[in-house]
């Protein structure tokens, strides 16, 4: 059974993703801070923004976990098929 290839991200991609994340986080926080409105409105926007960020992480983790589960399931199914084929090898039958 051939193992499925493991996808490895490059260091440049990882750095770009983290830099983009922190830039978006910083610029949005600055925009909320300098918004010409009351502090209660700014607080509501800040809490809503933080909730959106945590929900995004949770969604990304859930999608990744489901993909990994499907990958494992497909490997198990592939192993079962190979076992059945090995047990019922038609070439070696008399």
Mean pLDDT, nearest integer?
84
- Please give the number of β-strands: 0
Largest sheet: none
How widely separated are the two ends? 27 Å
Low-confidence stretches: none
* Overall radius of gyration: 25 Å
- The succession of helices and strands, N to C, reads HH
Number of helices: 2
Residues in β-strands, percent: under 5%
Provide the domain count.
1
* Helicity range: over 70%
List the SSEs and their pairings.
Blueprint lengths: L10 H23 L5 H49 L7
Give the gist of this structure:
This protein is mainly alpha-helical and 94 residues long.
Question: Could you characterize the architecture of this molecule?
Answer:
The chain is mostly helical. It has helices spanning 11-33, 39-87. It is elongated and about 80 Å long.
Give the tags.
0% strand; single chain; mainly alpha; 77% helix
